[in-house]
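pipeline/complex-builder :: batch 7 item 3
reading input block
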Amino acid sequence: MHEMAITLNAVEICEQAALGRAVTAVTLEIGDLSGVVPEAVEFCFDACTRGTLLDGAQLRIERVAGQGRCDCGKEFMVAALFDPCPSCGGYGVELLAGRELRVKELEVA
Amino acid sequence: MCMTCGCSGEDHHHDHGHHRHEYLHGSSGQKIAVETDILAKNDRLAAENRSLFRKRGVFALNLVSSPGSGKTTLLERTLADLSGEMGLAVIEGDQQTDRDAVRIAATGASVVQINTGTGCHLDAHMVGHAAEQLDLSGIDILFVENVGNLVCPATFDLGEHHKVVVLSVTEGEDKPLKYPGIFHAADIMLLNKIDLLPHLGFDVAQCREMAQRVNPAMTIFEVSARTGQGMDAWYCWLTERLSAAS
């Protein structure tokens, strides 16, 4: 359950950015191929924010779909890391999106 | 699905009793663009570890696998066979006990045990502090044996040169497709316990094909840490990469 460590890191980043102000909302970007389960981050969020500047903040998670580019030049949506290129059938596509794990923005009171 | 209440909704927010709800509604406060990677701190510490290893001429490998794949046995054999030729050290990661560190120490190699408690992976911070406890002079290869877990260690860079995934033939050939994250993050795969193949229905060709579907650049060695079968190819790779890195 590495989502606990991920959530604690996100809270630490938010507390530094909030400069002592109470945080009312947090937006995270989580890629579908990041290896992090958004529902598990939601589950950890209350425990990780208790007693911090984020206590009671609303959590918004924006999911980022996987996107890749094959050697043949084809760009396509990647649902799993072993998806073949729909054009040439090749594997090992270069990932252009889907690995994101970012704190996007905050709202402070 | 929401893990809190079991519903399928994504747009709602739970009141768990301790929320200060004056913050939940309105949200008319100031917005701050943060745009920071959640793993930024780990990645910074991993870069520091990588820089330390480079400066000290240490080739670092992060061994990842499910529990029971034979990582420690593989290390015991590797240390016993190569210790006359090069300096070897190990950082052992387990949730509890120093049992693996005791086994490694019996080979004569330097070892530091990290106990993560309930933690499911090693991170760059833990490895940096463990490395401080080792005398890196005279160490050519540092093996980091991660916590046995085929999921979480994929996400955390420790500053290693390579992630090495160990898969044993008792686990089933389809693990690369079931746990693609870790097989995508690693570029070396040790298929261990091949001495047991005559007793199992494990399809080696299918396993190789599945691993290379996830990662076409994967280099695969078929080994038995127990009998020593196939270990020479692994040692050749270590020796070649060590001389290339130094």
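note: Chain B has one domain: 40-245.
queue -> next item
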